[in-house]
Amino acid sequence: MMRMSTRQVALTATMSAASIVIAYSKGLAIPSLPGVVEFMTVLIFISGFCFGRLVGAAVGVVALTIYMLIPYPFAHPAAWLFSISPILLAVMAALGAMFGIAGAAVSRIIRPEGKARFALSLALVGLGLTFVYDVMSSVGFALAYPAFTSVWQAIVLTFVSLYLPWPPIVHTATNTVIFATVAPVLIAAIRKLPETTG
């Protein structure tokens, strides 16, 4: 069993709080933005990229769990539910951890050298992670609630428009842009701070 150091616990608490505050404040400050335009997952990814797999995974689990239990009204599908299913909560926590672990893995492969190449690499990572997140969160809804006849129906209905524009497509597109523009700047800023790596 992996143990967290005091420093890792402090980083987890700080980055989890930052992720949750950004998620809530986006809804309060810019309520006209659709709920699928979000900055939480990029902060979870950055946590893993800058501070390692354990911190990234922990930030993902903590941030997504709190946000699912207390969502900003109408900013998240969970806000429409009277009670959250433990199955959905577990799936979403695992998806949050996925972003943090992916950040740590990507930090070993992609170096922040060459701004354009780094931004493009992070955009592609954001595209892939967000697509997986949207598909698997649909699977979570299908497993947690009997409204769907099958998991495949849940996945198909995720990508079929109930209202325009298509939420998963908007989420994937905006996260691609956010990963390309926000992540490189924040990673560079964090790496300039003393004793921030690993």
List the topology elements:
Blueprint: H1 6-29, H2 40-51, H3 53-69, H4 86-109, H5 115-144, H6 151-158, H7 167-192
Descriptors:
198 residues; mainly alpha; Arp2/3 complex 21 kDa subunit ARPC3; 7 helices; 0% strand
Stretches with pLDDT under 50, minimum 5 residues: none
Beta-strand content estimate: under 5%
Rg (C-alpha, Å): 16 Å
Name of the CATH architecture: Orthogonal Bundle
In sequence order, what are the helices and strands, one letter per element? HHHHHHH
Kindly report how far apart the N and C termini lie.
Answer: 18 Å
In one word, what is the shape? globular
- Which sheet architecture does the biggest sheet show? none
- Average pLDDT figure: 84
For the record, the CATH class is Mainly Alpha
- Helix count from the secondary structure assignment: 7
- Overall number of domains: 1
Q: What is the tally of beta strands?
A: 0
CATH topology: Arp2/3 complex 21 kDa subunit ARPC3
Computed structural class:
mainly alpha
Range of helix content = over 70%
